[in-house]
Amino acid sequence: MSEIGWREFSYHLLDQFPKLPEQAFRSNFKKFPWKKNAKHLKAWQQGKTGFPIVDAGMRELWATGWMHNRVRMIVGSFLVKDLLIPWQQGAAWFWDTLVDADLAANSASWQWVAGTFSDKRYIANQDNLNRYAGTDQHGTWLDVSYDELLTLELPEALHERQAPELESALPGIRLDELTLTHGAPLALHSIWNLDPRWRRDIDQRIVFVDADLTTRWPMAAQRWQFIAHWAERCGATLVHGSVAALHDRIAEIDVVCIEYPACDSWPGTVEPRNWLYPMPDEAFPSFSKYWKQVKGSVGV
Question: pTM to 2 decimals?
Answer without folding.
Answer: 0.66
